[in-house]
Design brief:
Elements: E1 5-7, E2 17-21, E3 24-27, H1 39-42, E4 53-55, E5 58-60, H2 62-75, E6 81-85, H3 95-104, E7 107-110, H4 116-126, H5 134-137, E8 142-146, H6 150-153, E9 165-169, H7 175-179, E10 182-184, H8 191-204, H9 210-216, H10 220-227, H11 232-239, H12 243-253, E11 258-262, H13 272-285, E12 295-297, E13 316-319, E14 330-334, H14 338-341, H15 345-352, E15 357-362, H16 367-371, E16 374-377, E17 386-389, E18 395-399, H17 411-421, H18 429-437, E19 440-442, E20 448-450, E21 486-489, E22 496-497, E23 500-501, E24 507-509, E25 520-524, E26 529-536, E27 544-546, E28 575-580
Parallel strand pairs: 6-7, 6-14, 7-13, 8-9, 8-11, 9-10, 11-12, 14-15, 15-16, 21-27, 24-26
Antiparallel strand pairs: 1-2, 2-3, 4-5, 4-16, 17-18, 18-20, 19-20, 21-28, 22-23, 25-26, 25-28
Helix pairs in contact: 3-17, 4-13, 8-11, 8-12, 8-13
């Protein structure tokens, strides 16, 4: 009998299990999914998808589209072809197309639009990026949400925080901030100061976990000295907090099982790796690693402890952040909307204009499908077999096909077509799925978990050469806004999954700035501008402008420079000015 089990494919911490019941999507009752899904999946059917392939605006059949793809690929050298893939669908089989392109000799992309800076900081400090899973967060007494907005981006964490002490560090009074025992409405891009001051006062109050430091972080005195270079009074005033709040913070966490649950918010800057490493250092001071119910959770690596059967090692690579599209004659785009989601949209548009053939392989119409020469509709997650893992828990979710449909082609079938045409060895779909499944163990409740992922990593020390934590040795003082400039906060919306589903259309401003609801304003940064109607929101700081990810034109404002470490986009590095539009 066909299994009715699948999982949500979306780029989301929770990676929920789904039961497909008579055309309805229902949540797993067991485990973290806890019987509920979220609006994206509850309304999945409501979103019109691309039903027909097309070439230069003309509808064609799928066979014609594949023939066209071959014609396009044959017209140029493989070294003039780029495969640009993102994570509109997070399941593991998505990588099979990129594998085939890589074997054909095309370029692929490297780097991150997302979490790369923070990940680089974690790896520098700990030697690896092993995440604290949801199941351990459940055991903690205190949760610190640091640049993470759980009501929007990880709602299945919420049942786990009942009866726990909650601290929130966020420039926005988010829903979780309003419920928290302590909210520090920090000035954007000043988290490195807060993390270092917390460490310094932990040391001054003699509250460090000395045994842990001695064993796993022997350079701690040097780091304490670095934290002493901060001018306390001036910095506290600048970041928008008081000495009392530092005391309150420490009072709430010292001696408690604490989970520091980080999001991508505080690392969308060029020194994002250092910010994350300073947060890790505070956790080291508290001795939070290698213990039950303690640790630092971030956007982990969903492929941790999985050996990928797809080989990109020999492929030439260009950055995903400032991709030189104009150096290619053919660009194949899968599961991505780079014309909206990459930074510096004007640069992206100018650069991609020079490409002879843009191929878009996706589900929905958007800025990228609009300019594509060849559009190939994908299959939804309900129409193909797959397997997914998560960047926040250790589960492995089987995704069985639930529906038959004439629309679209799966990634695997597209890969089969290319492999046949270009004589590339490919295993059967079942073999790949079996390969992934072999990385799992079955738990008592019948669910699968990635076998080699530790629930409590770093119990024997860190993965650095000598097993010790590597502290920051220097840091950059972040730039401040000038008069009439604002920090740009660009965050995830409850209505969209980046540019999928219901996209936001406004800029959010504090009412004290004097703009009217609905009024059109022009936002200007040093790379570009965008006009958007105002929505007032007093949960913001007065020095911030908030535009949600997925809002059309938001990335006109963002730089395509990289983070110093991690080859990551830095969507919040730009300051903006506001002008009235008459
Ligand atoms: N509904 C929904 N869910 C999603 C997504 C979506 O688009 N919509 N996208 C998915 C993806 S791709 C990702 S990467 C994750 C990201 O999930 P989160 O990490 O939760 O992402 P963000 O909303 O970008 O940022 C989180 C918080 O950081 C705060 N922040 C901004 N700047 C700073 C700062 O300088 N310091 C501090 N301390 N905080 C700051 C923001 O105000 C925000 O509340 O969410 C995933 N889940
Ligand atoms: N200003 C600003 N920019 C940002 C961010 C921000 O917070 N602010 N966030 C950044 C982050 S964290 C991320 S992760 C990126 C996300 O950027 P993208 O990965 O480009 O994300 P989406 O906008 O979700 O576009 C995904 C596309 O995948 C396609 N798709 C969905 N399912 C499938 C499938 O099964 N098969 C195929 N072939 N296609 C499918 C859909 O058509 C959809 O258009 O954006 C980054 N850009
Ligand atoms: S919470 Fe995340 S994983 Fe769960 S259904 Fe919603 S988008 Fe999918
Ligand atoms: Mo992301």
């Amino acid at each position: 009998m066909k299994s009715s089990i699948t999982a949500c494919p979306l780029d989301c911490y929770d990676a929920c299990g789904i039961v497909y019941d008579d055309g309805k999507l229902k949540a797993f009752k067991d485990g973290h999914t806890n019987g509920f899904l979220c609006p994206h999946i509850n309304h999945y059917d409501a979103h019109a998808r691309i039903e027909k392939a097309r070439y230069k605006g003309q509808e064609i059949s799928m066979d014609e589209a594949l023939a066209k793809l071959k014609e396009i690929l044959d017209a140029n050298l493989k070294s003039e072809t780029l495969c640009y893939r993102s994570s509109g669908n997070f399941a593991l089989m998505q990588g099979v197309t990129e594998h085939v392109f890589a074997q054909m000799g095309t370029y692929v992309t490297e780097g991150s639009l997302c979490d790369g800076a923070g990940e680089a900081g974690i790896i520098e400090g700990r030697g690896s990026n092993k995440n604290m899973p949801l199941s351990e967060i459940a055991k903690s007494e205190v949760i610190v949400f640091w640049g993470r907005n759980p009501h929007v981006t990880s709602s299945h964490l919420l049942p786990l925080i009942k009866d726990k002490t909650v601290i929130v560090i966020d420039p926005v009074k988010t829903k979780i901030a309003k419920m928290a025992d302590l909210h520090i409405q920090i000035k954007p891009h000043t988290d490195i100061f807060l993390a270092m001051l917390l460490y310094r006062f932990l040391h001054i109050e003699d509250s460090c976990d000395d045994a842990f430091l001695k064993e796993f972080a022997s350079e701690h005195e040097d780091y304490y000295e670095l934290t002493q270079t901060i001018r306390i009074k001036a910095i506290l005033e600048d970041i928008g907090m008081t000495l009392g709040q530092i005391g309150d913070f420490l009072h709430l966490v010292v001696g408690k099982k604490t989970a520091i649950v980080c999001g991508v918010g505080m690392q969308k800057y060029r020194d994002g790796a250092d910010v994350m490493r300073a947060i890790d250092a505070f956790a080291v001071g508290l001795g939070l690693f290698g213990k039950k119910g303690c640790g630092v959770a971030y956007l982990g690596n969903s492929k941790e402890a999985i050996k990928m059967p797809f080989d990109l090692s020999k492929a030439k690579k260009v950055s995903k952040v400032d991709t030189p599209f104009d150096e290619f004659k053919t660009v194949f785009i899968q599961g991505a909307n780079p014309l909206s989601q990459m930074p510096d949209s004007n640069r992206v548009r100018d650069s991609i204009e020079h490409v002879e053939n843009v191929v878009y392989f996706g589900l929905y119409e958007n800025e990228t499908s609009e300019i594509a020469d060849l559009v190939i509709p994908a299959k939804t997650f309900l129409e193909k077999d797959d397997i997914r893992t998560s960047y926040s828990h250790n589960g492995m979710m089987l995704m069985h096909q639930q529906q038959e449909s004439d629309i679209g082609i799966s990634e695997y079938d597209l890969a089969v077509f290319l492999a046949k045409e270009y004589d590339i060895a490919l295993k059967s779909e079942a073999e790949y799925l079996e390969h992934f499944k072999n990385h799992a163990v079955v738990k008592i409740d019948g669910s699968f978990e990635v076998e080699k992922r530790e629930a409590i990593p770093y119990q024997e020390g860190f993965d650095t050469d000598d097993g010790e934590f590597v502290f920051l040795e220097e840091f950059e003082v972040p730039q401040k806004v000038e008069e009439n400039e604002f920090y740009l906060i660009t965050v995830k919306s409850p209505k969209s999954l980046n540019s999928q589903f219901y996209r936001e259309e406004n800029v959010y401003l504090h009412s004290a700035l004097g703009y009217k609801e609905g009024e059109l304003v022009k936002l200007i940064s040093n790379v570009g501008e965008v006009e958007l109607p105002v929505k007032l929101n007093d949960d913001l700081r007065e020095d911030c402008v908030l535009i949600y990810s997925g809002t059309k034109g938001v990335n006109n404002l963002t730089t395509s420079k990289h983070s110093y470490e991690g080859k990551s986009a830095i969507c919040q590095e730009n300051f903006v000015r506001i002008e009235k539009v008459n």
